Amino acid sequence: MSLFANKLQATHDRSNIGDEMAVLELKIFPADILRSPTDKVTDFDEALAKTAADMAETMYMENGIGLAANQVGLSMQMLVMDVPDEENPTASRLKTIINPEILESKGEVTWDEGCLSFPGLSVPVNRAETVVVRYFDAKGERHEEAMDGLEAICLQHEMDHLAGITFIDYLSPLKRKLALRELKKNLATP
Ligand SMILES: [Zn+2]
């Protein structure tokens, strides 16, 4: 997910990210892989950790707050996110989330979401306000965590990606048509 739709901007300390990280190529709609559900991760090895670090680097480079693996052409149930905390906006909250499962969701919230695979587009989406998610990190450790606010929204947006769903799927056919027309214009004018 991207943050252009509001004022929060990722400005964390990134000194812990090494020089050997690589920026991956971002897949832009209508790339087929954005429409395909991703595969479960089974091997928690060094290659996985490197891929997670590369995804984080790519997300920071694109000024995003969340990125799913299929957005960089990888069919695996992995996403990274770093949603700034309003109280402490420079602190890194980077999370690598693998094979996630929502255990509980409550409430409803609407937010104008952006997406790195849809440059310049902003779409209002209804999401659950709070979620409890179970996931594995890149070391294979299991976590169970409650999320709210923008972090919960971002998680749901990225988990949709992993299932082959994008935010325009929530729009009516007419609004989707208009959104895609706008996207075409955005892509034509860099
Ligand atoms: Zn997205």
Summed up, what is this model?
By secondary structure, this protein is an alpha+beta fold.
Can you walk through the features of this model?
With 190 residues, the protein is α+β, with helices and mostly antiparallel strands. It has a single domain (32-188), classed as Peptide Deformylase, CATH 3.90.45.10. Helix content is 24%, strand content 23%. A five-stranded antiparallel β-sheet has the order 1-2-3-6-7. Strands 4-5 form a two-stranded antiparallel sheet. A hairpin with a 5-residue loop joins strand 6 and strand 7. The longest helix is centred in the N-terminal third of the chain and has 16 residues, at 46-61. Bound molecules: zinc ion. Zinc ion binds next to helix 2.
Following the backbone from N to C, one meets helices and strands in this order, namely HEEEEEEEHH
Number of helices: 3
Task: Provide the residue-averaged pLDDT.
Answer: 92
Across the major sheet, the strand order is: 1-2-3-6-7
What gross morphology would you assign?
A: globular
Q: Identify the CATH architecture.
A: Alpha-Beta Complex
Give the number of domains.
1
Strand content: 15-25%
Indicate the CATH topology: Peptide Deformylase
* Sheet with most strands: 5 strands, antiparallel
Describe the SSE topology.
Layout: H1 46-61, E1 66-68, E2 78-81, E3 95-106, E4 109-114, E5 122-127, E6 130-136, E7 142-147, H2 149-162, H3 173-188
Antiparallel strand pairs: 1-2, 2-3, 3-6, 4-5, 6-7
The structure holds zinc ion.
Zinc ion is lined by residues 1, 115-117, 157, 161.
